[in-house]
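May I ask for a sample protein chain and its fold as tokens?
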Amino acid sequence: MVVSGTTVASAWGCSDPGGVDPEPIGDVPAGNVSDLPEGSLRPVGSIPVAIGRDSTGIYAMTLTCTHEGCNIALHGSVDFDGIRCSCHGARFSANGAVRGGPAPDPLVHFAVEIDTAGEIMIRGDQRVSADTRTPVV
């Protein structure tokens, strides 16, 4: 479907159907570890990436929905109870596992580094497993 010369998918911030790979994000500063309490998950601005902290450490993952590539940071909700894409209703756990809806794959995780001052850097070009955490020291 086309609306004013744009596909409905791109009007929602989505790629063409089948766009399951995350958008390239490179290195993304994600604040200080002191501002990320345990049991939290939040988008990093409007780019399609989230930063979270659980009992084992800090983790990051894409917010590019694996259904049609919508940017969940702009079109959805993100918190430690779960992630929901409002484009087509896909739902994910706080760790990116598919919970429901049309998404075929879990969300991709990225490497996280924390410097000596506690500043967090997401390495968006380095994919890691969903259970990878960077410990908070």
Observations:
- The first strand starts at residue 2 and ends at 3.
- The chain has one domain: 2-128.
- The two ends are 51 Å apart (CA to CA).
